Amino acid sequence: MRISTLYILLLLTVLVSCNNPQKSKSSDTVKDTIPNIVMLIQKCSRLYTTEVHVHKIITHEDDKKIKGSFLGQDIDITLPASERKIAIPLDATLKAYIDFSHFTNRNITKKGTKIEIILPDPKIILTSSKINHQEIKKQVAFMRSNFTDAELSQFEQQGRAQIIKQIPEQGIISSAQESAAKILIPMIQRMGYQESDIKITFRKQFTLHDIQILIDKSTVENGEAK
After folding, report:
1. What is the residue extent of each domain of the chain?
2. How many other CB atoms are there within 10 angstroms of residue 121's CB atom?
3. 51-102 pLDDT, tens per residue?
């Protein structure tokens, strides 16, 4: 009788332990890391990824002309000793940044162990531009007045506009993607992903037209910063 009672008690103990939900291990449930990744990347806020220094020579030349008509003939005569030439060295700094403040789970695609981070569109800013006045080369004929500060300022504006147009040639977009990957991949690896399973990309391949849209209009190319 005592032996039978002991067997019954052991059987009840086994049944209770197998059906107790508190004893099941949480490792059987796959933890969703996407919200954690979103929160981590959002903390990056505005991430400056690329900086490019540009040295450009701005050239300009003009002369005095007499234009009109005489006895029914058009006149266009360049006055002698009236030429002006100038070469202005301009140094500028371009930066690309990515704003993660509105980064969400829609920027993440996950398939099995593979994860893709779709970066927000980058922004490009011209953070500074400066004329090296000591290295300006100019030639002014004796019948002409020297270049004025207003003219030099106008030439600088033209130089900045040319630098903006040449942004596609700088490879700044691809550099921004590579730099973002170097920063984000180690962060995601710490979440348990293998480097080979992580892909960092933009939503599209940007065209020359797109790059004009990506330029931050609040920067010095509009004369709002120095």
Report:
1. 31-64+76-222
2. 14
3. 889 999 999 888 776 667 766 676 666 667 778 999 999 999 989 999 998 8
